[in-house]
User: Fold this.
Amino acid sequence: MSSTSANFFYKLLPIEALYYIFEYMTEKDQLNFALTCSWLYRVFRIYHVGYALPKWHPINITDDTIDNPFSPSNEDFSHEPTDIISHPFEGENVPNAPPAANYRDGVFLNGKLYLMIFEESPICWILDFEVISLSWKRESVTFVEFESDDDNESSDNVEIKKLELVPDMETHYQPLRSTAAVAISSMIYFFGGESLTREPTGILYVLDPIKMVLKKVMGQRGDIPSARKMHSLNAVGTQCIALFGGRCLMNDTPREYDTKEFHVYDISTKIWTMYRDSYDHVPYARSLHSTIIIDYNFYIYGGQQITSSTPESRIHDDDDLWCFTFNSSQQEDSTDEEQNTPEESSTSSKGSNGSRISSSFQQEKWQKIFSPRNNTSPAFSSGLGGEWHTTTGNNVGRRCGAAMFSVGKRVAVLGGFERDNWNRDEEEENTNPWELCKLYLPDRKRWDQVKITGFPEMECIAINLEHNGVFVMGRKRGDTEEQGITMGWIREGFSSG
Assistant:
């Protein structure tokens, strides 16, 4: 069969059928099979690394509205695509986009990106990906310190209550930065951050993104985390929030230190539970690290560190990946759950699949997944009090501010600033190592990589919108915190072959 005939024949097969065929082949046989025609090789690349020829498409900000060239209604991909974001505040002295300093605070919920700015008068930037003409929307946020007895009240009644019951903003609300945010159960939670005096805080807020009402969460119990900044928050199922690490102040001193505390918060019981390991087999203390949860597996990578010998913050020594698997075993739901004691309620909460997630989670163990360059003897494949795993493939490097996102079941690491300056002296000329997206495949314990052509050197977060591509925003090297945020898409390139 000629290459042209093979191309035509295999294009008739569903992609899923080819994936099924690959499952029963060795990787060597897969490659030999893929080299028989260009179409199969493209599918082979997507099967292994999620993309065939991914490219970076920057988003420009303008006051003129233009259709999104990547929208489903626009099928002309012959030109070099560039998204344009329109700005709806004509005539007002407001920025077109949030400042770069706040890029880490963005969360994705129901097709929209929310970016809360804790200024003297809090505001929220919203980017709706379901609108063909992308535009940042700037909403004022009302801070209230009361719990509504009826969330279904009319908007008029809610506004009246706001006016009657809103306390003094200067007394009960303080501007923040370096907080952490997470979207869960149609709400957005924020914990910690630092005040204008650079003192960390331990306040937990919740934002209703429909009403744009911000509240302090009252009545928390259990192992409440200490004040901190530059930590991480992740949703576990639909009822729990995982908090890890961050930077705290030592008692009665201005000296800062990084922590490795690991807490889980149950939003239904308002109980915090701290993970305790008798062997201290937990990830090293860090801040500004990267995290993601995929199928109840909690991954942590990179970040910054402060040590007794290096009081100045620097990119972390640890380039290994850490993984914690939450217990999501099926249990029968209690018919009178509201009558449970606080102790019973704190041990578990419902997961997204109807299961229950352990909040005490003391039986689970951390797994340390060595970077390929740190592989040790197989005799050390099981560590004291936990599990150690070696990997093969491409080195990841030591980074801070890298984005972590999922590509299928792979854990993707992209961008950030690299401690060893990307080993540029070892690289060939005219190469940009920050364009390489690293992908960890848990089933094979292997790191692959794929080049994102044109991707800038930047610290960032990323949101995989599946067929629409991966949306990335952050701050490029050399940009100040006051400059506008850098945004763009990672989408499949289209070769002429």
Notes: The chain is about 10% helix and 35% strand. The chain has one domain: 83-331+341-492.
